[in-house]
Structure formats: structure tokens, C-alpha cells
Design a protein that fits this description.
alpha+beta, Zincin-like, Neuraminidase, Porin, 6-stranded mixed sheet, 11 helices, 50 strands, globular
Length: 910
């Protein structure tokens, strides 16, 4: 029990949130520094010193507003990690094991985060509200926290549905009157208008999270819920909602929480909220003019149109990697190749194509690179770690792009010529080029501009408060772009010093191509997936208005900073334990007392759990400990006691099981292939103790090993686990000269292959092992799941063969071969989570499987045993936050020793 508790506590550490596709964004090889202000400890790589000082100054300015709003102040400094290791705008926050936030410097250039507020102010406002809100506690939880420290269940506001947590932060970040935050922003409002037109989601669906649309439902429905709560019940109602939950010692008491503030339980309040949404978001466009739908899908992005009328776009199913699609005039769409999620396609006025797509750079960075696209979809890579997320081909075969480094954007050619440098706080949201002119959309100090760059000259063509992005040029050089005049994103152009509107979108235009031959490709904001539309430009604009502000706006306001002293980063102070929980076990005459604690450093490089235990009757020191460094080096140790025999409640015989495992790996990461290699050792020892008698050794296994592997697997938003790719893991282990029960060498290959079949996944596994006669033998049988770990595990000798009992002599030997075929079929995304009790179900899937394998003595021939069966797999959610994959299966063994068995397991088979 204590081991599983320790693992659960370790998973609460905020560094777990920083793991993405085996990628940690904190590079330990950089020179990390720390500066401390009154309320913050800001950690940064040396090259980001200026940005870190700005973050520190801005955080100090924002925090008092958050603490005044919530009437709560964290007791210790908040740790802030400043990162420039990703080409996307993001942040995260956690109160465990200490108040902690990560801030990525790259500003947003698309979607709901694009608004009039400077990026660092927006992200810090959002994340600092999280930290103050989640840290807040009253009455019993606070009193217990004074005793036991920062344990997860003593943070009431953590134990709420995610839409509550994120919705409050969205509400706190927003000031619609100033164009700040997501509430009132055109993209966000367009999404909710689409929801209202389709039919609003139930509370059970929003509680469940799930895979369905809208993908940002926690932010969208949550944000507007608290706008509704404040509008209908006043600031006092909002405050009472927060205060009433913050003294909650009973976890997940969400349903009755709003009664004190509103007189209604959550079901009743949600019904009132839906009526409020319906009234507020009734359609604004009576007769939308947004084109003919020519394709629909889970994801359709980056529409591009060439002068001869060829349509290009990127289509995603949610089950496999997106595909690059080409449709010749009069032809059918043709899928050419896989591309990465969030890849971006752009075309020049003459039809040449560029693809910007992400890649892992230097094992710790998620950066965009540019590729030239051939007519057949072939790619020629142009940059390496280039950081070009936005780009435009030039007519002379070159390219110009927007790259952001240290949070500062610049427009530059791939040859290194810088055409424009953005000031601190500026964002660039689009680029287009024709001839010698480059056009850019830009946010500076709350003002959006369209500018033209020609050589060393820069001219402001348009400047006002309307959000602008995605500039495109037609053959005549007219500049088209997307803007939110009237708070709905539509296509506009600048002609003769006046603004012209060309579309009338129901919910808003997301992306557009350049117009050719009077045609424009659009993607629009929809309720369920994306729509690609072919739009014929009208002969005259739908609306014209004067273009204002064709002068350079004022320079960005001076950003706050700090002159606080700095020092080299040291992990020791943040590594100290922040909590403890007593462990008590009385059973079979044994009495065990212990504690469990966990911790990590501010960068999340060092993570640990420790659970020391003492058994009082036999005076045995027991316990478990885990240490992980940089998700690559792991040490596990444990010592446990099992009572074998008692007489008159007195322990007569017992066993002490001791185990340790260490693995260190080195790796080379890319999005579509990950290599690793490493070494480690494992020890498993079991001794029988008899009261007043001798100690007998029943098990003593020790191995040293080398490991290596290749992993090309990819899992997508809708896929049933990994949906495509190969994983191969190689093990070479030895027990020679280690004075253990077993000696000799063992070699093993474990490979898994996944490939999509429509919405389903066919998965294959082949496991082959060779052991010398003195080595520990392999065993087959049972239905256990794969251990939930990223790092390889040494000394594995037992493998599942469903339909057969584990440990049978006929399935034991020094040679092993195991093959598995599974067909994994999503049946239904239930996505419902009740409130009383707080239990839910997300996906229900079926798995048909066939196992075949044998373990046999060296020199003999295998006698393969076959098993087959069916499993129902379900994602079960408990308490809004805790989700796990469960398998309920029936297996039948077809051959000697086979049986029909039913089982219930946590986790996937592999």
C-alpha cells in the first residue's frame, strides 16, 4: 500500500505536468540562475536573464490583485521557471509540492489566446490566480495542513472539476472592455456561439472532460460560467462560491457547494446558466455568407490555393497523424503524406509552398522548422532548429519567416537577413510576401497594425484596436487579412485607404488562403470539428469603412523589471520535504509504523518519494524510496515484510523481501523516432526468518544489464492508445560473478507494432528471450498489465499469456517466445461524470486478442499454447481528476493447461 501511495504522491509533482511525449522542457546542461524578490523565486537559464527580470517585476505587480480578490496569500515564495524551449504559448501551475509555475516566453500567434493583452501579463495573471486559488484553504483543511504539510487532499480547490479551476482563471484574466483575456474575445465568443447553435453541453459532459468538442471545454464553459455567476449573483456570489469550498474537508463536495451563494445546487444552477448562454449567444448573423462546405473533419487547417486553382490543406482525423491533402481543379482530394500536428502550410502568390512543422531540437526543445513542398507532397527540409513557426515563400525561391527567441520576434530571411525586430511585448501573428515587399500583422501596446516592409523601410498601413492575423496577397497585390471588427472574425482587405469586408461568418473565420480567380478557401469556427469552405468573392465588398491610424503607434510601454540580486541555481532548498503522512498497519501479529513524504526541486529535475517503516514486534526496518533525475535516471529501493505463521497472535515466521533497481539512460529524441541506450542493475532478495531459529535465504537474484531501444509510436487525441509506429526494446543482462542464486546471461527482445485500421488499431507484440542454463528461467501465464513506466525495467522474467496460470512448470524455461495480436476498437465515448457520487466514464472500448507462446528448456522444442478472448476497456474517473484504464476480460486457453478465466486489471496489456 505504501508503495502505491508513494507513487501517487510523486505523480502530483508539477514536473509531471512538464512531461510531453517523453520531452522535458528543462535542459540541465544550461547555466541556470535564480533571483529572489519579496514573493517569488524566479529560475532561468542565463541567456534569459532580461526576460526573467521582467517576469519577476510583472509577477510582483500582478500578485497583490490576485491575493486581494481571493483574500488569501501564500505563505512562502512562489517558484517561477522561465522557459524558451517551445514554439508555443503556454504555462502551467501546481501547488504541490510547493507553489510552482512554468512560463513559456513565446507569445501566441493564433486562436483564443490572441488578444490585446501582452503575453507575459496574460499568462502570469492566469497562472498566479491558479496558484493563489489552489493554495487557498480555510478551517479544517488549513488546520490539518499545519500538521501534515502540503498533502493533495488538504487542498480543497484542487479537488474540483477542471472546468471550475480553469474557468475561474479565465474569468480572472479577462477584462472584455479593454480586450483583455479570453472572455469577450472574438474567437472565444465565436466558439460559444457555435455551441449555442448546435446545442449546449450538459454538466455531466463538462465534468468528464473527455475527447469531444469543444476541445477547450474546461476554459470555454468554465470561463463563461463564472461570468454568469458574477452577473447574476454579484461579486459576493462569486466570492461565496470560492470561500464555501475552501473549507471543505469532504473531497469533491461540488454539487451542494453553490447553495450558500445562490440557493441552488449545481444541477439547478447549470440549468440557469444554460438559459443565460442561450439568451446571450443567439445567432448574430441572420444570413451567413461564408462559402460552400467542400470538406469537413475533426481537423482541417492551413488552406492554400495556387494560381491554377489547386487546393491544398492539412486534414486530421484525430486517430492518426494529420495528412497533407492536394486537390487539383476538377479532381478529388488526394492524401499525399503524414505531417505533424499543428503543421502550417503557406503559399506564395505564384504558388510555391512552404510547410512549417515542429520537431524536437537538442532533446529538450520543441521548435518549428521549414520545408519546401513539392507538387507530389515531397518535403525538402530548409532549416534545423530554425524556430520559424510562420513563413511565406518569396517569388525568387527564397523564404521569409517569423521566428521568436527569448520571447522576442523578428522577421528574417532564411539566409539570416533581419527585416524587422519586434520590441519587448510585441507579438507578430502573420506574414505574407510579394516581390520585394513583406506584410506583417502585429500587436504593440494594445494596438494592432498591418505593416509593410520593403528593404530597410517600414510603413504602417493600418493601426487600430481590432485583432488582425493571417495576411494574404492576391495576384494584384491587394492585402487580405482576418480581423475582428464587430467582434466577429471575418475576411477584410485594405484597398485605396479603406477597409473592405468580404465575408459574413456565422461564428467567425479561423484561417484563409490567398484569393485566386475570385475564389477564397476558408476554415470557419464550428461546433463539431472543422469545415473547409470554397468562397466566391462578391463583386463588391459587403461593407466598407475608413481605415484609421495609418501611423506608427507609440512604442510599447516600459515593462516592469527588477534589480533583485541573483545567484547560481541550487536545488537543495526546494528539495526539502513539504509534507508527511503516517502509515499504520496492524495485521497477523505485526505492527508497522511509518511515514511517507515526497518532493522535487524547482526545475523538476530531481523527484523523490521516501516511505520509511519500522515493524515493532521484530524490530525490522522497512520501507520504500524512489528517486528520478531528468526522467532518465531512476533508483528504486524497497524492503517489506510478510508474516508467514503466527501462534497466539505472535509472529513465528516471516519473510523479508528486499529489492532495488537502478537504470540510467541516454537518448536522442525526435517526434517520429526516439532512440535510447543505457545500463542498470537489479536486486531481488527474500529471506525466511523463524523466531528463535536460523534465517534461510529463499531468493537472491542480482543482475547487471545493458538496454537500448527505438520508439516510433504515436498516440493521437482520439486513438485507442498508440495508433501507429514501432517500439523495440533490447536487454542484455548478466548475473555472472554476483554471488546470487542464478548465474549466466539473459538476452531479450520486446517489440510492439501498431497500425491504424480506420478508427481502430491493430497491435502486435513479439517477445523473445534467451537465457543460459544457470540463469533465472522465464515464466508465462496470467493477464498482468505492463508496468506504467517510461524507463525500461530489468530482471523481468514473467510475462502474461492469457488463458493459462502463471508459474506452471510446463510454461517455464530458459527460452521464451510470445506473440500477441490485438484489435482495439473504440465503442463509445461516454464522457459523463456524475456529481453524487463523483464517478464518471469516458471511453468504452473493446479488445479482441489472440496470444500464442511458450517457455521451454534450451535444446528442446517449443510446444506453443494458444489463448484468445475479449476485453472491455474503460476509462473510469473518480473525483473529477483521477482517471485510469481498466480491463475486464475473459480469456480461454485452447491447449494443454488452458482454462477459461475472467479478470479485472488496471492498465493496458501492452
Amino acid at each position: 500500500m505504501k508503495r502505491w501511495l508513494a507513487v501517487a504522491l510523486l505523480a502530483w509533482g508539477p514536473a509531471a505536468l512538464a512531461q510531453w511525449n517523453e520531452l522535458s522542457f528543462v535542459d540541465p546542461s544550461l547555466r541556470w540562475r535564480t533571483l529572489e524578490t519579496a514573493n517569488f523565486a524566479v529560475h532561468f537559464a542565463e541567456q534569459h536573464r532580461a526576460q526573467a527580470r521582467t517576469v519577476a517585476g510583472m509577477a510582483e505587480r500582478i500578485l497583490p490583485g490576485m491575493t486581494a480578490l481571493l483574500r488569501w496569500r501564500p505563505e512562502s515564495r512562489i517558484h517561477v521557471v522561465v522557459l524558451d524551449s517551445a514554439d508555443f504559448a503556454n504555462g502551467l501551475a501546481s501547488p504541490l509540492p510547493f507553489n510552482y509555475t512554468m512560463v513559456f516566453l513565446s507569445p501566441p500567434d493564433e486562436g483564443e489566446l490572441v488578444q490585446n493583452r501582452e503575453w507575459l501579463e496574460l499568462v502570469l495573471t492566469h497562472e498566479l490566480f491558479h496558484l493563489v486559488h489552489l493554495d487557498m484553504a480555510r478551517a479544517a483543511p488549513l488546520g490539518l495542513r499545519r500538521v501534515f504539510g502540503r498533502l493533495p487532499f488538504l487542498f480543497p480547490n484542487v479537488l474540483q472539476p477542471r472546468w471550475v479551476v480553469e474557468g475561474m482563471a479565465v474569468h480572472a484574466e479577462s477584462d472584455p472592455g479593454r480586450g483583455y483575456g479570453r472572455l469577450g474575445q472574438a474567437h472565444f465568443e465565436g466558439m460559444m456561439r457555435a455551441e449555442a447553435a448546435r446545442g449546449l453541453r450538459s454538466l455531466e459532459e463538462i465534468n468528464a472532460g473527455g475527447r469531444g468538442f469543444p476541445l477547450n471545454r474546461d476554459y470555454l464553459y468554465g470561463g463563461y460560467f463564472f461570468a454568469f455567476l458574477q452577473e447574476r449573483y454579484g461579486r459576493e456570489g462569486l466570492t461565496a462560491f470560492i470561500e464555501n469550498y475552501s473549507d471543505n474537508i469532504i473531497p469533491f463536495r461540488v454539487h451542494s457547494n453553490p447553495a450558500a451563494a445562490t440557493g441552488k445546487n449545481m444541477d439547478e444552477l447549470w440549468a440557469e446558466y444554460r438559459n443565460w448562454l442561450t439568451a446571450r449567444f443567439s445567432p448574430k448573423v441572420a444570413s451567413a455568407r461564408q462559402g460552400e462546405v467542400i470538406a469537413q473533419g475533426w481537423s482541417i487547417t492551413s488552406p492554400a490555393l495556387t494560381p491554377e486553382g489547386t487546393r491544398w490543406y492539412i486534414r486530421g482525423s484525430g486517430y492518426t497523424l494529420p495528412t497533407l491533402v492536394r486537390q487539383a481543379p476538377g479532381g478529388k482530394p488526394q492524401a499525399l503524406r503524414d505531417v505533424e500536428l499543428d503543421a502550417r502550410l503557406s503559399a506564395s502568390p505564384r504558388g510555391s509552398l512552404l510547410l512549417a512543422q515542429p520537431e524536437i531540437c537538442g532533446n529538450y526543445n520543441y521548435y518549428y522548422d521549414l520545408n519546401r513542398v513539392g507538387p507530389d507532397g515531397s518535403l525538402k527540409r530548409l532549416t534545423e532548429c530554425g524556430r520559424y513557426r510562420l513563413a511565406a515563400p518569396l517569388d525568387d525561391g527564397r523564404a521569409v519567416g517569423v521566428r521568436t527567441e527569448n520571447g522576442l520576434a523578428q522577421v528574417a530571411t532564411l539566409e539570416g537577413e533581419v527585416l524587422y525586430r519586434a520590441a519587448a511585448g510585441e507579438s507578430i501573428t502573420g506574414v505574407a510576401a510579394s516581390g520585394a515587399s513583406v506584410f506583417v500583422t502585429r500587436l504593440r501596446d494594445g494596438t494592432w497594425s498591418l505593416i509593410r516592409i520593403s528593404g530597410q523601410n517600414m510603413e504602417v498601413l493600418l493601426s487600430d484596436s481590432a485583432i488582425k492575423h493571417s495576411p494574404r496577397l492576391d495576384a494584384a497585390g491587394e492585402v487580405f487579412f482576418i480581423a475582428d471588427y464587430g467582434n466577429v472574425f471575418n475576411v477584410w482587405s485594405l484597398r485605396g485607404g479603406r477597409l473592405a469586408r468580404w465575408t459574413e461568418a456565422a461564428h467567425g473565420v479561423r484561417e484563409m488562403s490567398a484569393p485566386h480567380g475570385g475564389e477564397l478557401l476558408l476554415t470557419t469556427i464550428e461546433a463539431d470539428g472543422d469545415a473547409l469552405r470554397s468562397y466566391r468573392l462578391p463583386d463588391i465588398p459587403l461593407e466598407e469603412r475608413a481605415a484609421l491610424g495609418a501611423t506608427e503607434p507609440s512604442p510599447p510601454a516600459t515593462m516592469p523589471s527588477t534589480d533583485a540580486p541573483e545567484r547560481a541555481y541550487a536545488p537543495w532548498s526546494s528539495l526539502l520535504p513539504r509534507s508527511w503522512l503516517p502509515l499504520i498497519e496492524v495485521a497477523d501479529g505485526a505492527v508497522k509504523l511509518g511515514v511517507v513524504t515526497f518532493g522535487q526541486d524547482a526545475l523538476g529535475l530531481h523527484q523523490y518519494t521516501v516511505a520509511p517503516v519500522i515493524e515493532l514486534t521484530q524490530q525490522e526496518l522497512l520501507g520504500d524510496a524512489t528517486y528520478v533525475y531528468d526522467s532518465r535516471h531512476q533508483l528504486l529501493v524497497g524492503r517489506s515484510m510478510t508474516v508467514r505463521e503466527t501462534v497466539d497472535d505472535e509472529v513465528e515466521t516471516y519473510t523479508i523481501e528486499e529489492g532495488a533497481q537502478w537504470v540510467s539512460t541516454w537518448r536522442h529524441l525526435a517526434l517520429n523516432r526516439r532512440f535510447y541506450w543505457g545500463l542498470g542493475g537489479a536486486l531481488e532478495r527474500e529471506r525466511l526468518h523463524r523466531s528463535g531459529g536460523p534465517t534461510l535465504s529463499e531468493q537472491d537474484e542480482r543482475v547487471l544489464g545493458l538496454v537500448a531501444g527505438l520508439d516510433t509510436r504515436r498516440a493521437q487525441w482520439l486513438s485507442e492508445g498508440p495508433s501507429q509506429g514501432l517500439q523495440v526494446r533490447l536487454f542484455a543482462e548478466t548475473s555472472r560473478g554476483l554471488h546470487a542464486f542464478y548465474s549466466g546471461d539473459v538476452y531479450r527482445v520486446d517489440s510492439r507494432l501498431h497500425f491504424p485500421l480506420g478508427r481502430t488499431v491493430v497491435s502486435l507484440r513479439w517477445n523473445e528471450g534467451w537465457g543460459e542454463p544457470d540463469a533465472e528461467p522465464f515464466q508465462l501465464g496470467g493477464s498482468d498489465s505492463d508496468p506504467p513506466t517510461l524507463l525500461p525495467i530489468l530482471n523481468q522474467r514473467e510475462f502474461a499469456l492469457r488463458g493459462y496460470s502463471s508459474g506452471e512448470p510446463s510454461l517455464t524455461g530458459h527460452r521464451v517466445r510470445l506473440g500477441t495480436l490485438e484489435w482495439r476498437v473504440p465503442l463509445k465515448d461516454i464522457d459523463r461524470h456524475g456529481m453524487v457520487p463523483p464517478v464518471g466514464f469516458n471511453r468504452l472500448a473493446m479488445n479482441l486478442f489472440f496470444d500464442v507462446g511458450d517457455a521451454w528448456p534450451r535444446g528442446a522444442e517449443p510446444d506453443y499454447r494458444r489463448g484468445f478472448g475479449v476485453e472491455l476497456m474503460s476509462e473510469i474517473r473518480i473525483g473529477y481528476l483521477y482517471a485510469g484504464d481498466f480491463r475486464l476480460g475473459i480469456a480461454k486457453g485452447r491447449d494443454e493447461g488452458g482454462e477459461t478465466t475472467a479478470y479485472f486489471r488496471l492498465g493496458r496489456s501492452f
